[in-house]
Amino acid sequence: MFIGIDDTDSRKKFCTTYLATLIYEELKKSYTLNIPKLIRLNPMVKYKTRGNGGVCIEILDDLEKRDKEEVREITIKFVEKYSDLSSDQTNPGIVFLDREKFKENREILRNYYKEALFNILSLEYAEKVIKRVGGGFIKFKKGLGIIGALGAISSEPPYTYELLAYRKKENWGKRREIDERSVIEMDRKTFPYTFDNYDYENEKVLITPNTPCPVLFGIRGINIKTLIDAYFMVKGEKPERFMIFKTNHGTDVHLRVMKIRDIYPNTGVIVYGKVSEKPRDIEGGHVIFKLSDDTGNIDCIAYEPTKGFRETIRKLIPGDFVAVYGTVREEPLTINIEKIKILKLEKIYRLNKRCPHCGGTLKAKGKKVGYKCKRCKKVIKYEEIEKEEIKRDLKIGFYEVPGVARRHLSKPIQLIDLIK
Ligand code: ATP
């Protein structure tokens, strides 16, 4: 049996992963469980609390009717106790699905996962799919959580992992005391198998959240063993418990290759095209440029919080061939750049203004005439002027926003060859 849960917390209180951990610990007493999942869905969903994540717990045993009832009761009891039902924006949802139904409907669920990553779905649509695959759901208040709950159940590889360490209750809301140097050391020792631990450009610890939730820190990585080693390297406040989740963090599953003509708002794209207008700085410290392919053009933007990444964007020139990775903002329609792959750099030249006859300085006399040497007075045609290639201050390859500005789902460059 699969149990999906979402939309239980608010910015002020609780965390759906903490709730999942408590339910997991309770169910573990009687059942065999798979590793729980923490699945992020479309990051463009407006009413998300933080990172649009839902959770899924899978019971591996064959369940009797009585067991199923017990599982439902336990889940509901915990969701009621650990959801911030007083917050307007918290609308919990639980989805139950039997393992046989999951297997029978794998294709429908796979599709739903893609839709939940790429599109904005309605509550009615999620209900329809749950009924179609033979699942059950419980809605609290508006029950919007069932959209993400089904998304978490439906997910498929690629996966990474996150070890989430939780705080003792008496520490909730207080400052997190984590030794920065121990995080840097942990990062260095476990690279490249853990990611997004520390932002070296902005000197910022990334494993601790900023909200008053029960999470002390979260370490992301591509294998469980390294995560456990990393956990013991972090010094500071002692966690009360930890849980390892299978996740889609750092996988880029929210992006897919699209032609500019087909792009629509609130989705994730990878667009291959040529820079068609020089990047320019706009108000607020953002940098914007136009990208074109054979179907149209679209503005791409590196926002101020992407800090040093904007320097790379500023160095692009018309003619450069790139792939832009990012999500599409509605108004105005622009791609918010998460990462860029520079595939081909336009060549730029400087005219050699030395006279080929005497080495004197050449002076422009208009396109028709060409250049005239100031010293020997000889005329050199425009086409005959020697051109020297200027070395570009950019290299072919990937460039990404710093860790502080990275989305949960964005694949860091260090993982490009590690996760396919
Ligand atoms: P947390 O990560 O702390 O649990 P969150 O950022 O996941 O919080 P939620 O409070 O869960 O935010 O709110 C996100 C809401 O969006 C949930 O109700 C979820 O069901 C819903 N949702 C998820 N994916 C989609 C989608 N593709 N379209 C529409 N709604 C979605």
From TrEMBL:
One of its GO terms (molecular function) is nucleic acid binding. Residues 144-254 form the TiaS FLD domain. The keyword Plastid does not apply. It catalyses: cytidine(34) in tRNA(Ile2) + agmatine + ATP + H2O = 2-agmatinylcytidine(34) in tRNA(Ile2) + AMP + 2 phosphate + 2 H(+). Residues 2-138 form the TiaS-like TCKD domain. The keyword ATP-binding applies. GO terms for biological process: tRNA wobble cytosine modification. It is found in: Cytoplasm. Residues 269-343 form the OB domain. SUPFAM superfamilies: Nucleic acid-binding proteins. InterPro entries: NA-bd_OB-fold (IPR012340), NA-bd_OB_tRNA (IPR004365), TiaS-like_TCKD (IPR053870), TiaS_FLD (IPR013696), tRNA_Ile2__agm2C_synt (IPR024913), Zn_ribbon_TiaS (IPR055394). GO terms for cellular component: cytoplasm. Its EC number is 6.3.4.22. It is an enzyme of class 6 (ligase). CDD domains: RPA2_OBF_like (cd04482). It holds the Pfam family Zn_ribbon_TiaS. It comes from the Archaea. Residues 352-394 form the TiaS C-terminal zinc ribbon domain. PANTHER family: TRNA(ILE2) 2-AGMATINYLCYTIDINE SYNTHETASE TIAS (PTHR40705:SF1). Belongs to the TiaS family. This is tRNA(Ile2) 2-agmatinylcytidine synthetase TiaS.
